[in-house]
Structures are given as structure tokens and as C-alpha cells.
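C-alpha cells incoming
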């Protein structure tokens, strides 16, 4: 018997897909659209093997670095099913596979998309070696409300920066050839509008206008699609009552018709079925039909597709062409990641692929480039005169906390804490006392009142959260310098990690206050998945480093910064508020017709404590000669400025270009929009001229039909070190 066309690697993919589709039964097709989860059982329960053998599984969510077990399953799919279609194995590799990097908003603070690209290319190599050919990343959602725990997975609050970072992540994961053993398929999530849940409560509904969708939430998905992303995940939320998984406008009209996306869309976990809970679909069958017809191709976990679609097709309720198209898209990606040619993972590759010295070195580099210096009264870098350091706080020596909200295949034992990093950095030159001081406890004991409401039980729980003030105070008093390591635990960040307060958790504030009262200079290092509202901590500290969730090289990277071996260069990818009541707070909001005086009636400023783009280093830069130079010979005008390092140390400055269109008849445009940046490294006394051409890509917006428009008229233009500073230049675009 001759080899069927779909198995012939010399034939083009589209021809092979057509051939394969023509051989498939409806049930086999639906199997391709079904994704199941491998639980924690090892060996696999027999029903899994049975499902695969019957051709009912197209994909596994596979959270384990066990290529042998994965191959066992794949062997059933390839050798024991009628057509031998391989399974695609996907996993949440978000900020590292085994080498865990800083979380995405931290890496975005580098303002260096190439850093992201390299980090994800390392993650791809390690994940491939673990038997994964598909990752559920990058997360393209725009940070809007920091009560929402998943800001810890975003690239921050700015669509421009976010677009560059997400496109870079796609390039890192997929490389030039997603079928190579170094690359894999990326998945853009969560499409779309998931990041504006009411009250910051994860999974809740959103209201987003077409204008805001087009100009704030979609650009980063669009950029990542243009970078070649092979898959997209639809989100849990509903926009204006329409669940994202069943939204034809976003999934088909925009994604397919406008952007020409050719890969497949997978739902989020059980989201197809949840359209019933939303009160949108009337039952499972309705849910499946509405979702697949809207353009959602694969069903993650709900099994609604494989249980209900065949009957609906047979009853004439759903055209088989819709199913065929979804299957075609899934098969296309399977071909593109090389599964038909190489269905099995190399079982001996993992150990030599992970934690390679160059991966670890790079992870350290990432920490230094993503930790933001928010305040420094001169205490940093640590002076040579300092002999005794007290490192106090629950984040100072906790390996697990360094890993962040997703840990892929990361292991606690790989992480270097700040205590460990400082010991290696300073050795016997400094005596280091490490005091935990208190736990990071976050779960208050709750009690139910007679009326059925639930309140915090103030009388319970304190003992679990023992705070050891006396030991901390003793250590602080004996030290020349105190480093406080405080923050929010990783367990309350990421998915489901919504918070109503944005303070340091448990009894850390009490600990901090007792230590600060000792009168020693305090350097505070904050570990967190989101900006926190901690004005008192900031005011009482001599210096503040915002370390996010830094990954396994936390301690080494932070020690590089504290010692001054490396100067900080990161800039905030998300604004930091004073108080939680200001949230949602982001720099790129609209200008109103009314002035509020800049303060709430209870005295809290309406501005951020630190705006987007803010960050200090160990030297100072001066901006001068900022002007607009008109373009010659048909070239666009340019905004230019001279930047000089006027300090005594070398440093990197991130020069930022913001614009505002003063009158736009489509709809008002935000107060400021980042449209360019340049990182310049300058030695003391050195200066450089920075130029930003003011072309259509800089001045434009997207109208409600998806067209890029550039209007003639007046613009404000800023070249500044961060949002909301500096004088605007006026530019008239003719
Ligand atoms: C639910 C999350 O929302 C999504 O980000 C993740 O990729 C899937 N679960 C799979 O684990």
C-alpha cells in the first residue's frame, strides 16, 4: 500500500491537511478539538490511554517534565489509532521552564524586548526537551487594575511597550522554525479584555468599548500575531455580556478576517461550558455550537465539543464545514511544530538542556535589568564602610517565594535567595545577620455572623503569624545598614490572586515599623507580583528596590545591584499608586474637562506615587535642547533631545517619547501615549543626541473598523525620563 499523502513529508502542509481531513470520521475530527488534562497520577489511569486509543484526544495539558510518559501516550496515538494523528502537548511555561526568570511585568521594566526574546528562547529549549511543543504564553493582556492578580503575567500598562514585548516573546518561543527541537508554538492569551474585571475580581465581566479595545487591548495581540504566533487562547471574561469564547466579532471578524490569523484558538479551562453559567448558552450543546461557530477551535477541558457536536451536525444544526475548518487549523499547527515528522520527544535531552550555565547567567542579568530603583537618598550602592548588615523580613531567605506566580518545571532548590546572594557577594567583608521576623501569612481566619455574613475573626490567627520583633530590632540596632525584604507572597498573585488591599501582608508592616524606628538606614527590597500601595514604607526607607518576583537568580542579581557592581536601569512597566482606592490608575487615561485639584477629598493625591516609566540609577542624566526638527525631502519631522550623564558613574538611561493628539474626532485620545524609547549607555560626562522620527506609526491610532489612521493637526510631544514629566512641545502634523 502506498504512503498516504498526509504522511508524505515532501508534500506541502495544506495538501497533507486536505488529504487527512478527507479520511477522518466526524468523531475523529472532534477528537482533534478535544483537550484534556493529565492529572497528577503516575502511571496514567487506564481510561486516559483508552480515550487516546479511541482517537478522542487531540491535545493534553501536560505539566510535567516526563518525556518518557509523554512518549508512551504519543505511541498510542501514533501507532494504535486508525490515522495515527499525533497529540500536541501544551503547558503553562510563562516565565521560564526550569530556569525561572523574573515575571513578565518585571522583564518589561527592562524596556528591552530582546531580553524577553532571549528568555523565552531559553524557556523554549528547556520545555521542548521536557516533551512540550506548545506553551500557553505570552499573556498579551494589558495591565489595568492591579487588584487583579494576573497583572503579574502582563507586560504592564502600556500598549506600545506591551506590543513590542509580546512580539519578542513569540519570536523567542517560535524562533524561525517552530518545528526545530529548540522551539515550539506560542499561544497568545487571554483573548480578549480579560484584564479589566470589575473590582479587580478575577474572571468577572468587563465593559470595553470598541475604541478602547482597538487602541488599548488589541494592539499587543495584533503585534504578536504579526510576529507569527501559531495559537491564541480565548479568555474567561465576557465583554458586555458576550463570553469571549463565543464572541464572533473578536474571534472571527478581527482575528481571522482582519488580521489573517491561520492558526487555532483554544478556549480557556472549561470556558466553553461556562457560557451556560454566564446565562448566554442554554446548555452544553448550545455552548459548543456557539463557541465553535464564533471561531473557537479547541475545547480545553469542558468536553462539550466531543460530547455534543456530532449529534448537532447530524441533526443539521451545525454545518460540518465549521468543524472541518477548526480541525484544519489544529492540524496545521501540528504540522508546523513538526509533530507528524517527529512525534516523540528525545527522552535523554532534558537533563543536559536545563539550567545550563548560560541560562543561569542570563537569568541573573534579567534580575538586574528588571529590578526598579524607586528611591535612593544615597545609601545605595552599599558603601565600603558598611561592616554589618541585618537582612530582615520573610522574603530575605525564602527560596520558594522567588519562583513567582507560575513555576513551570522550576524547583525551589534552584533558587538563590537574597541572603545567599549577599553572602556570596560580600563574603567575610561584611557580617550578615538574617532574621525572618514574621511570616507572610495572608489567610485571615474568618467567622460567620448570625445574619450569615462573613467577617475577619480578629481574635484568631495571630499566633500562627508569629512576629519576632525583638530579634529583628536587636539585629537592626547592631547593624550599620538594614535591608528589609518584604512584599506579598506569590500564592496570592497570578490566577485567582485578586486583592482588595495592596499592602505588605500579614504582620510585615508592624515588623517594618519596629525596625525603621531603630534609626538605622533602611534599604527596602519589595517582592511582589504587582505594584503595592505602601507609601509609609517608601517614606521611611532610605532606598527602595522593587524586585517583583525575580526567579531563581534573585539573590545574585539583587546583590549585584545593592553592591553597585551593576547599576539599576529598569523603569516601571506599571504605575504605583499611593492607595488602593486610586485603582484603576494608569498614566494613559483621558483628560477631563474638569480639574480636581489633584487630591481626593480625603487628602490622597489623584496622581500615582510613581508613574509608568519611572526608575532611578546610580548616576543622573540631564535632558537639554529638546526640540522638533522639521523633516527634509519628504522625511518625517523628528523630536530630538540631548542626554548627558552628569554624574560620576556610568549608567543606562531609557529616553521615552510620548505624544498626545489634541483633537481627534473619532474619539478623544489619552493624555499621553508612549510611542518610542531608546536605551542609551553613557559614561560620566558623555552625552548623546536622541532622535525620534514623528511618522504615522508614532502619531496614529486605530479606528473602530480596524484601520490605522493618522490625522493632520496638533500634537503634544514629550521626550522625558518617564510619563507625566517634562514640558510638552507642540507639533503640527500637516
Ligand atoms: C487557566 C488560565 O487562565 C490560563 O492562563 C492557563 O493557560 C490555563 N488555565 C491552562 O492551565
Amino acid at each position: 500500500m502506498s504512503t498516504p499523502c498526509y504522511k508524505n513529508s515532501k508534500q506541502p502542509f495544506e495538501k497533507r491537511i486536505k488529504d487527512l481531513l478527507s479520511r477522518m470520521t466526524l468523531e475523529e475530527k472532534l477528537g482533534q478539538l478535544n483537550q484534556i488534562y493529565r492529572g497528577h497520577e503516575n502511571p496514567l489511569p487506564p481510561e486516559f490511554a483508552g480515550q487516546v486509543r479511541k482517537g478522542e484526544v487531540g491535545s493534553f495539558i501536560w505539566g510535567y517534565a516526563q518525556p518518557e510518559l509523554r512518549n508512551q501516550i504519543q505511541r498510542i496515538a501514533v501507532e494504535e489509532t486508525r490515522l495515527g494523528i499525533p497529540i500536541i502537548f501544551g503547558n503553562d511555561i510563562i516565565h521560564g521552564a526550569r530556569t525561572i526568570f523574573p515575571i513578565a511585568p518585571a522583564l518589561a521594566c527592562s524596556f528591552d524586548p530582546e531580553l524577553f526574546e532571549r528568555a523565552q528562547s531559553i524557556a523554549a529549549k528547556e520545555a521542548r526537551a521536557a516533551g512540550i511543543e506548545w506553551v500557553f504564553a505570552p499573556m498579551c493582556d494589558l495591565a489595568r487594575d492591579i487588584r487583579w492578580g494576573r497583572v503579574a503575567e502582563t507586560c504592564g500598562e502600556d500598549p506600545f511597550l506591551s506590543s513590542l514585548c509580546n512580539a519578542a516573546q513569540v519570536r523567542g518561543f517560535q524562533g524561525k522554525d517552530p518545528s526545530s527541537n529548540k522551539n515550539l508554538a506560542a499561544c497568545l492569551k487571554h483573548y480578549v479584555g480579560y484584564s479589566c474585571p470589575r473590582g479587580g475580581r478575577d474572571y468577572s465581566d468587563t465593559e470595553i468599548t470598541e475604541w478602547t479595545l482597538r487602541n488599548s487591548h488589541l494592539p499587543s495581540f495584533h503585534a504578536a500575531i504579526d510576529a507569527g504566533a501559531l495559537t491564541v487562547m480565548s479568555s474567561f471574561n465576557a465583554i458586555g455580556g458576550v463570553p469571549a469564547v463565543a464572541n464572533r466579532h473578536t474571534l472571527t471578524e478581527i482575528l481571522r478576517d482582519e488580521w489573517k490569523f491561520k492558526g487555532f484558538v483554544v478556549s480557556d479551562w472549561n470556558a466553553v461550558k461556562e457560557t451556560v453559567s454566564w446565562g448566554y448558552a442554554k446548555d452544553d450543546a448550545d455552548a459548543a455550537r456557539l463557541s465553535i461557530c464564533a471561531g473557537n477551535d479547541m475545547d480545553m477541558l469542558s468536553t462539550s465539543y466531543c460530547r455534543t457536536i456530532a449529534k448537532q451536525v447530524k441533526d443539521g444544526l451545525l454545518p460540518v464545514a465549521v468543524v472541518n475548518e477548526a480541525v484544519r487549523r489544529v492540524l496545521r499547527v501540528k504540522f508546523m511544530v513538526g509533530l507528524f515528522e517527529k512525534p516523540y520527544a528525545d527522552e535523554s535531552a532534558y537533563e543536559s538542556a536545563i539550567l545550563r550555565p548560560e541560562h543561569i547567567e542570563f537569568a541573573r542579568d534579567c534580575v538586574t535589568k528588571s529590578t526598579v530603583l524607586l528611591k535612593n537618598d544615597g545609601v545605595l550602592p552599599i558603601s565600603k564602610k558598611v561592616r554589618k548588615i541585618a537582612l530582615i523580613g520573610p522574603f530575605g531567605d525564602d527560596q520558594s517565594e522567588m519562583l513567582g506566580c507560575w513555576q513551570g518545571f522550576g524547583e525551589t532548590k534552584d533558587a538563590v535567595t537574597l541572603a545567599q546572594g549577599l553572602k556570596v557577594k560580600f563574603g567575610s567583608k561584611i557580617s550578615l545577620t538574617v532574621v525572618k521576623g514574621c511570616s507572610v501569612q495572608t489567610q485571615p481566619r474568618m467567622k460567620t455572623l448570625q445574619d450569615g455574613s462573613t467577617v475577619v475573626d480578629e481574635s484568631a490567627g495571630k499566633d500562627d503569624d508569629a512576629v519576632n520583633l525583638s530579634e529583628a530590632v536587636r539585629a537592626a540596632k547592631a547593624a550599620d545598614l538594614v535591608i528589609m525584604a518584604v512584599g506579598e507572597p506569590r500564592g496570592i498573585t497570578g490566577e485567582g490572586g485578586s486583592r482588595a488591599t495592596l499592602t505588605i501582608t500579614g504582620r510585615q508592616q508592624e515588623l517594618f515599623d519596629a525596625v525603621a524606628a531603630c534609626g538605622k538606614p533602611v534599604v527596602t527590597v519589595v517582592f511582589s507580583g504587582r505594584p503595592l500601595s505602601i507609601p509609609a514604607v517608601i517614606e521611611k526607607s532610605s532606598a527602595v528596590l522593587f524586585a517583583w518576583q525575580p526567579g531563581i537568580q534573585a539573590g545574585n542579581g539583587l546583590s549585584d545591584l545593592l553592591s553597585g557592581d551593576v547599576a539599576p536601569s529598569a523603569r516601571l512597566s506599571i504605575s504605583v499608586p499611593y492607595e488602593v482606592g486610586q485603582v484603576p490608575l494608569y498614566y494613559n487615561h483621558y483628560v477631563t474637562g474638569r480639574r480636581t485639584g489633584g487630591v481626593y477629598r480625603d487628602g490622597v493625591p489623584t496622581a500615582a506615587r510613581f508613574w509608568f516609566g519611572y526608575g532611578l540609577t546610580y548616576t543622573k542624566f540631564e535632558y537639554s535642547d529638546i526640540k522638533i526638527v522639521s523633516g527634509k525631502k519628504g522625511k518625517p519631522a523628528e523630536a530630538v533631545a540631548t542626554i548627558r550623564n552628569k554624574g560620576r558613574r556610568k549608567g543606562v538611561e531609557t529616553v521615552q517619547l510620548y505624544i498626545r493628539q489634541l483633537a481627534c474626532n473619532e474619539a478623544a485620545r489619552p493624555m499621553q501615549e508612549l510611542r518610542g524609547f531608546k536605551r542609551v549607555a553613557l559614561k560620566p560626562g558623555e552625552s548623546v543626541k536622541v532622535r525620534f522620527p514623528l511618522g504615522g506609526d508614532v502619531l496614529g491610532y486605530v479606528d473602530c473598523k480596524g484601520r490605522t489612521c493618522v490625522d493632520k493637526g496638533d500634537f503634544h510631544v514629550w521626550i522625558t525620563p518617564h510619563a507625566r514629566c517634562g514640558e510638552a512641545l507642540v507639533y503640527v502634523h500637516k
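note: The chain has three domains: 91-350, 360-446+460-582, 621-733.
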